[in-house]
Each structure stands twice: as C-alpha cells, then as structure tokens.
Amino acid sequence: MPQPLEPLDADLIRSGIGAGVLQQIARLEVFAELGSTNACLLAAPAPAPGNLTAALAEFQRAGRGRWGRTWNMPPRSGIALSVGWSFAEAPGDLSALSLAAGVVARQAIRAASGRAPALKWPNDLVWADRKLGGILVETASRPGGSCHVVVGLGLNVSMDDETLWNLGERPGSAIDMAMMTAGRPPLRNELAARLIEGYFGMFGTFERSGFAAYRVAYREADYLKRRPVTVSDGSNRLSGTAEGVDPSGALILMTGDGRRRIVAGDVTVRPRR
Predict the structure, then answer these.
(1) Which tens digit of pLDDT belongs to each residue from 58-75?
(2) H or E stretch at 244
C-alpha cells in the first residue's frame, strides 16, 4: 500500500508561491470534496485582467476529461487543480492552450520530481506509455469579446495497485507519480504551488505570444512524433504517421493520401510493423 499523502493545504501552497505572483492570485481555495474544480471556477465570477483564480479538491464527485468522460481519483491520491484567467480578447490559437498547459505541467513535474513526462496530443501526460494525467480547457465568452478560460489538471500522485490498474480507460493504462519516481513522489502542496505559479506565467505569455512561445518545448516532449496512430472522431477513423503539430496546435498526420491537419479527436498509437 502507498504511504498516505499529506493533505492539501491552501496556506502551505501559498507559502510556496513567489510574492510577485501571490499578490495576483484573486482566489485560491482547497475543498475536501467538490463536483468539479473546473465547474467551480466557471460558475464563479471571472478574475480581473492579470489575476488568477485557483481551486483544488481532495475528491471530485464529477471529475471529467474530454468528451465528458469520467475521471475520478480516490481522495488524497492525486492533484485535481483548476486555474482561471480572463483574456481581454480570445487568442486566435486558443485551441492550443491545452498544449501549452501540458508543457507547463511537465516543467513543474520535472522541477518537483526530476522526471519529465511526455505529452500526448491533445491533452495527456504520459510516462512509460501510460497516462499520468490529463488536461481539460473550458471557456466562457463574456460581453465585449473577452474570454474566461479555465484550465483543469488531473494528476495521479500515489494510489494502491488495484485502484491504479482500474483507473484508466482500459485496465493497466494509468500510472502515478509514486511509480514514476520509484516510490518517492513529490509533496503535493509543493507541486501544486509550482503548477499554479507556472500557469500564472503561462497565461500572460500566451496572451502576448500565443502557442509560438511553447511550440519548441512541446516538440521536445511530443509522445506521438513519428509514431503510427489512428485518430477517431465519432464514427470517423483516420490512420497515418504523426508528424508533430502546426503553429496553431493542430496535429499533422501523414496518410496514404497525403498530409492531413487534425484539430480534434482521440489518438491511439498503433504497433509498428
């Protein structure tokens, strides 16, 4: 059985955030139980420009991933974090924000643990070919063309073997940070502080420069690069070789009919022949 993880503590998280960023955090709350951290921030007033909101939960009753899929971790076994931001005007490449958020999560995980997971388009963190966590970006338009954006991150930190085996979309498809670090996962409060600080910087950078500021770092972490894959979008399926992402964050797929640009879909890695 894994060692019990320390409880998330808003004061400890704040103590790990630099003073310059901390004064720009309009709201940082930790909940014992919540429906969804994303839904919590989306239902609350949007932060003022240049300010960040953050919500964490020890347990989510209605945690979810893309396409409305359920993603619930046992209490105190991971990090369920959402951060909110207001863009004065929605960036043209807003669809790539999940990729930038993956880069920032990877950097924070590496700084806290010494391990850097790969990034699987469009929103997964992967270690040893298994899912370590996922990102969900949701938006709400506001009067005047501004945009309230919430980035949610679910990250497996430490859980028992049976729970972990059954956590993913199929048995054995998930991994946690305890396994990734040979039983020495980082402290959750320290990691949460690094993530929140990183996301604050990301929003400002994305507002100024868009995905261009993160494309090289994403390329270095790209789990799918040059792998044979199948992309599913509802009843449609398309196979080819993944060739990175374009400047707007779309997946580039080389098929028998030529180059295709994929903006949405589930990706499955196929065995090499």
Answers:
(1) 999 876 555 555 667 788
(2) strand 236-245
Q: Which CATH class is domain 10-219?
A: alpha beta
The set of residues, in sequence order, having a beta carbon less than 8 Å from that of 66 and lying 6+ positions away, is: 122, 123, 134, 136, 266
Inter-helix orientation angle 97-113/188-209, to 10° = 140
Angle at 13 between CA 11 and CA 16, to 5 degrees: 110
Q: How many CB atoms lie within 10 A of CB 201?
A: 12
CATH, domain range 224-269: 2.30.30.100
Domain boundaries, the chain: 10-219, 224-269
Q: List all residues 6 or more positions away from 56 whose beta carbon is below 8 Å from its beta carbon.
A: 8, 10, 13, 29, 30, 31, 37, 79, 80, 81, 82, 192
Domain 10-219 identical in fold to domain 224-269: no
Of the candidates 237, 238, 235, 262, the one whose C-alpha atom is nearest the C-alpha of residue 248 is 262
Beta bridge partners of 241: 228, 254
Mean confidence (pLDDT) of the chain: 92
Strand-pair partners of 118: 126
Q: What is the pLDDT of residues 245-256, one digit of tens each?
A: 999 999 999 999
* pLDDT number for residue 119: 98
Burial 46-73 (b: 16+ CB within 10 A, else e): bbeeebbbbbbbbbbeebbbbeeeebbb
Instruction: With 0.85 as the threshold, say if the pTM is over it.
Output: yes
Instruction: Report residue 261 CA to chain centroid gap.
Output: 22
- What's the token pair of residue 73? 């971790």
Residue 29 parent element (H or E): strand 25-31
